[in-house]
Design goal:
PsuG, eleven-stranded mixed sheet, Pseudouridine-5'-phosphate glycosidase, globular, alpha/beta, two-stranded antiparallel sheet, hydrolase activity, acting on glycosyl bonds
């Protein structure tokens, strides 16, 4: 068995801790062949600097070209401007990338390139076949937890579909939120879905849902109001950071959904967008659109029928979420000033999951 020096400051003061670090080291070596973490991101995670995860289905399936690539780059820049490190996650040639270079991001954005929509269930297939694609909320949350990223920013999460009684279509995003202690910052649930049932499902799964700002109105993606309330609200970044920090101290296995209303100037009139969605849903049913093709189809239809208004709102809300989420990550980093065992291990493997599992002492 590998041995490690007993350093009081590093917390390696018991044989059991040494054994645990060794086992996690071996597990991480296996993961290393499947996940490539960009060096600046790995160093930021290992040194407890603020990192924000970003998904890529918004690039591959959520927006048209070239807006998809432009917005992705602008969101990364917003994250950096707030003092955090942007970690855009995707799958390239059968390997999970945490941090995409410009070439990989362009490949995902270009409409001619062949790429798949990758949820958590699709990861083994995509990796085994050497495929390329954008990661959904579910897959990105899973990978974020795997590598030790606490804050994930997206536009809107998936949820319970309106025809659930017939289709049983419930997004895997909800299940992964219940399994991974990550703070997900979004403009609520996509308004093409059944928001009420989605909130009920999240409650059943033990996911804490909180509105950001004054009041507890749950946003409806394109609109600030959905007609539904959340149990709680937080007023600022510090309160939001404290929320996920306390959850992690409790070793909770579930994540937190922070619902950020779209800025008022970009909010679409609720009745208007609802009528457009109803038409899109009717068209999807008539054309037998099902499975993972439903959401991209509906978003495209809504964009067409609003003469691009929904796309403009989508771009504004994701940037707003990125700004708020990054500030939360910075506050959380300040709260988590701890020294963990396994620092030497991280230098070799660049896997912060090791540090997350061993004994830590608060400064």
């Amino acid at each position: 068995m590998e041995t490690f020096p007993r350093d009081r400051n590093r917390g390696l003061n018991t044989v059991s801790t040494q054994v645990r670090v060794t086992n996690l080291w071996r597990i991480s070596r296996q993961l290393h062949s499947h996940i490539d973490i960009a060096e600046p991101i790995a160093q930021a995670i290992a040194s407890n600097k603020p990192v924000v995860a970003l998904e890529t289905t918004i690039v591959t399936h959520g927006m048209p070209y070239p807006e998809n690539e432009r917005v992705a780059l602008e969101v990364e820049e917003i994250v950096r401007q707030q003092g955090a490190v942007a970690a855009t996650i995707g799958v390239v040639n059968g390997k999970i990338k945490v941090g995409l270079d410009s070439k990989s991001l362009s490949a995902l954005a270009e409409p001619e390139s062949k790429k798949m929509k990758i949820s958590k269930r699709d990861l083994p297939y995509a990796l085994s076949r050497g495929l390329t694609g954008g990661t959904t909320v579910a897959a990105t949350v899973f990978v974020s937890k795997l590598v030790g990223i606490d804050v994930f920013v997206t536009g809107g999460i998936g949820g319970v579909h309106r025809d659930v009684n017939e289709s049983m279509d419930v997004s895997a995003d909800l299940l992964e939120l219940s399994r991974n202690p990550v703070l997900v910052v979004s403009a609520g649930v996509k308004s093409i879905l059944d928001i009420g049932r989605t909130l009920e499902y999240l409650e059943t799964c033990g996911v804490c849902v909180v509105t950001y700002g004054e009041g507890a109105e749950f946003p409806a993606f394109f609109s600030r109001k959905s007609g539904f309330k959340t149990p709680y609200n937080v007023s600022n970044e510090e309160e939001a950071a404290s929320l996920i920090y306390k959850s992690q101290q409790l070793h909770s296995k579930s994540g937190i959904l922070l619902a950020v209303p779209i800025p008022e100037y970009a909010s679409l009139e609720a009745k208007k967008i609802q009528d457009v969605i109803e038409e899109a849903l009717s068209k999807a049913k008539k054309d037998n659109i099902s499975g993972k093709a439903v959401t991209p189809f509906l978003l495209d239809r809504v964009r067409e029928n609003t003469a691009g208004e929904s796309l403009a709102s989508n771009m504004i809300l994701i940037k707003n979420n990125a700004q708020i989420g990054s500030r939360i990550a910075v506050k959380l980093s300040e709260m988590k000033k701890y020294v963990c065992a396994g620092g030497a291990m991280l230098d070799i493997l660049m896997y912060p999951t090791v540090a997350a599992e061993v004994d830590c002492t608060t400064e």
